[in-house]
Amino acid sequence: MNTNGITSNPAFGKIFDELFNRSISDIVGTDFTSESPSVNIIETNESFELEVAAPELTKQDFNVSIEKDQLTISADRKIEEYENTSTYKRKEYDFKKFSRKFRLPKTVDKETVTAKYNLGILRVTVDKTPEAKEKGPITINID
Amino acid sequence: MNTTQKSRAHRGHRANRNHGFFAPAFGNIINEILNSPLNEVVKDKPKKYTYPQANVMSEDGAYILSLAIPGVAKEDVSINIEKNKLTIKSEVEEKTDTKYRLREFNYAKFERAFTLSDDVDIDNISAKFENGVLTISIPTVKEAGPKKVEIV
């Protein structure tokens, strides 16, 4: 795993779900409820962007925190909208309560983390330090 | 596998059993069309990240189908009903210049189909899209009771 990027901590991640639940369901259809949202991490010249696919929530449900080099994205939604009047016939996702942790590289500025919730995606942007930002090619003039 | 993961896996499994997807009770609701041919699944491994998750709830007089497609724009989604097959899809070509460090989902291009049961009122199906979830409301028609024929 590349040490320059943000890494997902496997112990808290989806790896166990993947290993123990997903392999068979790939072939016969989904047979368990996903309770941990999928995440994409995009690297740009200036920053890392984490896209957390957690639909059906509101921005108040999220909690984003940084402790040392660990970024934690969690949600805890207490409202049970349908529980009383309806019954689940099929349940493939449930992101009301989750927590995912990521290790931040040393090349990011922990003070400039921003988060935005739109279209069911929580987008967390972590800026790179000025030194780590990729600069364009520099032309040196020969005197 | 530690205890947390074990209980999670167990919970998921049990949850589905309770909801009885394979039980006859589910039979006359919305049955999923075979996801895709086996060879396609094996060959096209990344597909699982492009395959949106769905919840189905039963309410009084309706089924509520929720499809989790975060990041997808409303204009890009099409819902089509042909006979008793409900198909939801999006066909957006994604940008190729994005540099992904981790990729766990991609719903730019997806297709999922469901088979509707006979007790569904196809003409009154409605849909809304909010917070990355497409919610399709599928009303059911009241089953006509046994018909009594009067002898004249």
Describe the fold and architecture:
- The complex is a heterodimer of chains A (143) and B (152).
- Chain A has 143 residues and is mainly beta.
- Chain A has a domain at 7-20 and 37-78 and 93-128: Immunoglobulin-like (Sandwich).
- Chain A is 10% helix and 41% strand.
- Chain A contains 1 helix and 9 strands, in the order βαββββββββ.
- Chain A has one helix spanning 15-28; strands at residues 7-8, 38-43, 47-53, 62-67, 70-76, 87-91, 97-103, 108-118, 121-128.
- In chain A, the strands form 2 sheets. A 4-stranded antiparallel sheet of chain A has the order 1-7-5-4, with no helix packed on it. A 4-stranded antiparallel sheet of chain A has the order 2-3-9-8, with no helix packed on it.
- In chain A, β4 and β5 form a beta hairpin.
- The model of chain A is unreliable at 15-28 (pLDDT under 50).
- Chain B is an alpha+beta fold and 152 residues long.
- Chain B has one domain (29-139): Sandwich (Immunoglobulin-like).
- In chain B, 18% of the residues lie in helices and 34% in strands.
- Chain B has 3 helices and 9 strands.
- Chain B has a 4-stranded antiparallel sheet, with no helix packed on it.
- Chain B starts with a helix and ends in a 13-residue tail after the last strand.
- Residues 1-45 of chain B have low confidence and may be disordered.
- The interface between A and B is large, with 48 and 52 residues.
